[in-house]
């Protein structure tokens, strides 16, 4: 189970975590899973006009908690970050087209039985991460928040 202290599952994501606010990652916490060596998070919007849009890729997390505002660089003290569908490293929050209604944003956390080695790749995408995680996922949790721009 994945939770945030700033919004509950299926609630509205506060503006500060979106493109209309400070665009920082929200604080997240999940239960420790027995046998997990690392955790990974992929944040995605399945309601994007062009298909599922990736907002965040972070992996090799050793802890089960992230504070607000993870730095937008590849290497952080918490783990490694890949590139999102904005073409940027790190977190970029909800930013649906104006007047498009509510979009759902899934923060998916994966408990893995290994540390991933993706060093050969310059920019790790969500697909790269999913490929690397194959056969190593021992548990999955998610938190879904909603956001719209008028």
UniProtKB/TrEMBL annotation:
InterPro entries: PEBP (IPR008914), PEBP-like_sf (IPR036610), YbhB_YbcL/LppC-like (IPR005247)
Alphabetical list of Pfam families matching this protein: PBP
UniProt-recorded name of the protein: YbhB/YbcL family Raf kinase inhibitor-like protein
Lineage, highest ranks first: Archaea, Thermoproteota, Thermoprotei, Sulfolobales, Sulfolobaceae
């Amino acid at each position: 189970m994945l939770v945030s202290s700033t919004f509950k599952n299926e609630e509205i994501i506060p503006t500060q975590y979106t493109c209309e606010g400070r665009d920082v990652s929200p604080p997240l916490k999940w239960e420790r899973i027995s046998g997990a060596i690392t955790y990974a998070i992929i944040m995605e919007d399945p309601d994007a006009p062009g298909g599922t849009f990736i907002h965040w890729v972070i992996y090799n997390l050793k802890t089960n908690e992230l504070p607000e505002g993870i730095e937008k660089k590849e290497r952080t003290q918490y783990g490694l970050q890949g590139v999102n569908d904005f073409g940027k490293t790190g977190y970029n929050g909800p930013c649906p087209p104006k007047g498009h209604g509510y979009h759902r944003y899934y923060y998916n956390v994966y408990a893995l039985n290994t540390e991933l080695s993706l060093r050969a790749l310059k920019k790790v995408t969500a697909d790269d991460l999913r490929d690397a995680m194959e056969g190593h996922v021992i548990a999955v949790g998610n938190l879904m928040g909603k956001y719209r721009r008028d």
